[in-house]
Amino acid sequence: MSDDLSVEREGRVAVWTITRAHRHNSFGGTLLADILVAADTAATDPGIGAVVTRAEGPTWCVGGDAADLGAVAGISLDDCWAGTELGGDKGLEPVPADDLGAGRWALKLRELAKPLVAAVNGPVGGGGLGLAMLHDIRVASTSATFGAGFANLGLGPELGLSVTLPAVMKTSALEFLLGGEVLTAQRAADAGIVDRVVSPEDLDGAALATAQRLAARPIGAIESTTRLVRAPVDSILREALTAEWAAQRVLWESPDVTTAVNRLVARVKR
What global pTM score does this model have? Predict the structure, then answer.
C-alpha cells in the first residue's frame, strides 16, 4: 500500500502492518493517512470482519515522529493540522482550524465498526498508546511496554486517551498519565490495558486467531455488536477529543514544551 503501512488479508481478517521500523513506527510519513484509507476499505468490504494491527521491528508505535515534532515546535497546532506539517498527505485533508484538530483522525478510525485487535510486540508510547487504546482488544508480547509520555513533554493526553484509558483501567489512569511510569506487558494486563499476554513467537498467531474467531460471525452482528459495545466510550468521545484539543493547543504554546521537544529531538539524533 505504501512505505509506511502494508495491508494483507487472512481470510476474513485484514492485517495492517506498520512498516516504519526505521523511525520506531512513529506517526510520520503517510502512516496516519494510510490507516484511514485502510479503514475505509475494510468498512466497505463485507468480507472483512475484523482487523489486526501489528508492526515490524522491535517497537509497536511511539506516536509522533521526533523529526516532525522538532520541525513544528513553536508553530501553533492549528496551523500544523490545517497545513501540510501534520495534515494533508500525512493525516487528514488540511482544513481550517476547528475544535477537534487531531481528534478528527481518531473519530474517523473509530467509525470502522469491526473489531480492531492490536498485536503489540514492543514499546508503546505517546500517540502510539492512543492508537492502541482505540482498538477493542490488545494482545501483547512479553516484550511490550506501555507508557504515556505526554506529561514528560509538558503536554496532555490526546486521541481520546482521557476516556479510553479510564474506561478500562483498574488502577488510576491519572497516576499513569502523569506519573511517567512505563508498564511491562504483565503489569499493563493487571491494570486492564492489555487483554492477554503471550510469548513473542506466539503474538501474531494469538492476535490473528482472536480476530478470526470474531470475524466468523455474520457481518451485521459484527458491526452492530461492535457499535453497541463501544457506545459508552464513543458517546462521549467527541466531547473528550474537543477538550483534549483545546488543552493541547494551550500547552503546545508553552516554552516548557518547546524546550522539552528540542531536548527529545537532540537525544534521538545522538
Answer: 0.94
